[in-house]
């Protein structure tokens, strides 16, 4: 019998989340961001429910090839662009659009021999200070690209650093609009947080939006680790079963380092999941889990292959009882991946992307 642990990818939830993004972003075209193997969900699994998007955005050329092999003939965008000159050959062959964020990438384009001019997304560093041309250098970069026969169209883009926080987008938006006011070309400004939190403010300013985490049902708002206010549904559920139980006396400890000590007699369940499966080792005592529809808590330190949970809320729980570690339980109850991540001092993105290869994955259509 296989180890009683699985991840379930909910296809209907992916469709629902994409539709919700469109409700917030009006007429803007949507890039479905599938970088990092679709945030750990698997490109091949999410392709069908997300093919209603207008394009796919990712980082890796190999992932772009996978999307083409699935039959996608529409736009594919490389969010970080090309890393070396020979990457442009594959861009030409696969018809990839790509970001240009530094002068070296323009140099590579200028030396590239192609019969098919490229679509490029010229990125401005409007305050994020990762990738992009400084505002005072942006127009010169645009002029260089416009002069190249290798370039067909230039889209203007930037990325907001605080769309999910109190600083908001106003300062960066003002910089971007001041520099690009009279430049032709489509605009792409918004990630998940900007799309959902600032959709009205950005209405008419976005030709393309770039939702990532929202498509997978995780909170786009750092201040509130819960996607339900946005009516986003979890695309991934991690669940396992109890493989043993123990009865503790007051004073008994649990797991390595004895980080939990019982203050009363209690029963605990040993669950077939650990940090080698992608569950965060640093999740502390009290991290929430679901026993059926009932909330319970993690006890003791997470081991490589096992973790332990409090069975007090469900006295009849025992070997074989299903435990939902994040996502939607079979009964319909939901435990937000963001709540689990917050307890562990991280974000839902990391938990999704950390799902281990050894975890069996199935697809489903839960509503």
Cα Rg: 23 Å
* Distance linking N and C termini: 29 Å
Identify the overall geometry: elongated
The string of secondary-structure elements, in order, is: EHEHHEHEHEHEHEHEHEEEEEEEEEEHHE
CATH architecture descriptor of the largest domain: Alpha-Beta Barrel
Low-pLDDT segments:
none
Domain count: the total is 2
Q: Strand sequence of the main sheet, in spatial order?
A: 2-3-4-5-6-7-8-9
Number of strands: 19
Describe the sheet with the most strands: 8 strands, parallel, barrel
Which features does this protein show?
26% helix, 2 domains, TIM Barrel, eight-stranded parallel barrel, alpha/beta, Lyase, Ornithine Decarboxylase, Chain A, domain 1, six-stranded antiparallel beta barrel, elongated
Describe how the helices and strands are arranged:
Layout: E1 5-10, H1 11-25, E2 29-33, H2 35-39, H3 43-50, E3 55-58, H4 61-69, E4 76-78, H5 87-94, E5 97-100, H6 103-111, E6 118-124, H7 135-146, E7 151-158, H8 170-180, E8 187-190, H9 192-197, E9 208-209, E10 236-248, E11 253-254, E12 260-261, E13 266-271, E14 288-291, E15 294-299, E16 307-310, E17 322-328, E18 334-335, H10 337-343, H11 348-353, E19 361-364
Parallel strand pairs: 1-19, 2-3, 2-9, 3-4, 4-5, 5-6, 6-7, 7-8, 8-9
Antiparallel strand pairs: 1-10, 10-13, 10-17, 11-12, 13-16, 14-15, 14-17, 15-16, 17-18
Helix pairs in contact: 1-3, 4-5, 7-8
